[in-house]
Amino acid sequence: MACYFFSQPLPHLFFYFVLFSSLTPFVFPLSTVSISEISNKTLVCALVNVPGATQSSLNCSSFPSGIQIPSNSKTSFSAIVGGDGFLCGLISLSLSPATSTLVCWRFSVNGTIMSYKRIYQRLALSQLEAGNSVTCGLVNTTNRLECWPRRKFRSVDQNFSSMAVGEDFVCGLLEYGNIACLGSYKAVVGQFPKGNYSAIAAGSRHACAINFTGELDCWGMPGEKPPQGEFISMALGENRGCALRTNETVVCWGQGNFSLPERLRETRFSTIEAKRKVFCGVQKSDFSLYCWGNENFNPNSIVFKSVLPGPCRSSCGLDDIIGGSGRWCPEGQQICRHSKSNIGNSVPPAVAPPPPPTLEKRCKWSGKMIAFLVVGCVGSLILLLVVGFFLFKYCKCRGCRVHDSGRLDGAGPGAPVEQGGGPSQPHAPQAEEASPVLEKRLSQLVSMGNAGHLEEFSLQVILEATNNFSHDKTIGTGSFGSVYQATLEDGREVAIKRAEISNTSSYADEIHRVLDSRVPPPTPFEIEAVIYIGYLAADCVTLEGRDRPSMAGVVNSLEKALAACLVHPTSLSRSTTGGST
């Protein structure tokens, strides 16, 4: 699996242009060589130049023999990749360069072709890579990652500039050279190094990247250290790897002291590819393909001749065109070659690169997130309304002073009672007991009625408003006291009733005066029943609907009134209040 360099955005173009011009060779993002493992056999395919033709041809060879060779001589492929039991080819038509078509062959265990089908036909792919069991590509215009089968890395929305595919993981370079890995293989996904890199490659269970000084950093393969030096590309297999030096020679390392065959150590290569234990490289001088890695390959034998060293392109950098490659490509296209790198002789610019930005994850609102947001907002609103309601009730109740001194007719503790049941004449002067009795009666009236709109004034305020209850302020008199006109400090005109002390007989006389003389005088219990009904009627016609009693309150008041009327104490008689005349 080859590695590829990434393109940089415009904001830091000057810095990266200076850096890349001295450090970065041109690397092909589309491979023209593929390696497939089918049972115990290896299928090596390459895009080969056909003499006299303007398009390449797909050629394959089985090692050892026994694998059915795909035949599609009429189709021109721009890239090929392979894996365990499959081979895929990318078709990019010159008449429609904005679209790509990806077709794949699948092989049975015995090496015969089991199926041939198209798996992709949409926007053009700028890169195509394959692991052992999955194929991935980068969409040219959006850098979106597409993988097949589609269940692999389905939730991926990374903006990769280049990527590499392993077994159960994908690693790629972001726009500033940061590495990001995806998948389930934690030895690679959770262990990738931090920093800025120019190239990346993946094997079955490990990955490597080249930093801006040309050095290798590898992870996922414990115990095996990559070689020292300066490199321009890599190809990784199964617990082994090979890297292309800046002088275009190859060095290999890995499990079991894996190394490049002696015959190829001085050979200069244009590109290298790998799959599991097999490695292949295109020789730079004559574009012959050599393979090594197991006993089926003889490093002295050429697998194919005239292999395309890279895909045909419409433009290359200055002096980066392979001479004579125009005859292998459609009109107006050519194959680009590696630039000579002078990493060791160049001095990095003094300007420090900008710090890599934090990778921002694109957040998409799912249905569950929207539901949580709605429920949270509604719940918060309800909580605020409840708190506001209780605060309103609390502040309102703090302005109310409700006094409850018990029954209106009840005697205070310690009051003597005559044997006949009536209250005895007080022995203390009447003036001393007048104030408590009056306060008790007033508070009882407040507690039985709707006190929500009552105000309590101090005696000093009342005295000032009535000019010390001046006779000039009197506007009326009654059996229970006089009524005075007064003006409060805020300008309100009010009427103030001043209750006057009267004895028991005066109350009885008043009652007898207003009642029908033919009807016996009421008992105190009957009077209490009438009070219940009166206040119940007053509460039922209040303007504020929330202050009206509920049906349960109405029934309760009626039951109290009825209970008061039905009381017939033996200790009291109707003559207690005096006879009527």
TrEMBL record:
Its EC number is 2.7.11.1. Residues 409-423 have a biased composition (Gly residues). It is found in: Membrane. It holds the Pfam family RCC1_2. Its main location: membrane. One of its GO terms (cellular component) is membrane. It is an enzyme of class 2 (transferase). Residues 408-434 are annotated as: Disordered. It is a single-pass type I membrane protein. One of its GO terms (molecular function) is protein serine/threonine kinase activity. Keywords: ATP-binding, Disulfide bond, Glycoprotein, Kinase, Membrane, Nucleotide-binding, Receptor, Signal, Transferase, Transmembrane, Transmembrane helix. ATP binds at residue 497. The keyword Nucleotide-binding applies. This is non-specific serine/threonine protein kinase. It comes from the Eukaryota. PANTHER family: SERINE/THREONINE-PROTEIN KINASE-LIKE PROTEIN ACR4, SERINE_THREONINE-PROTEIN KINASE-LIKE PROTEIN ACR4. It catalyses: L-threonyl-[protein] + ATP = O-phospho-L-threonyl-[protein] + ADP + H(+); L-seryl-[protein] + ATP = O-phospho-L-seryl-[protein] + ADP + H(+). InterPro entries: Kinase-like_dom_sf, Protein_kinase_ATP_BS, RCC1/BLIP-II.
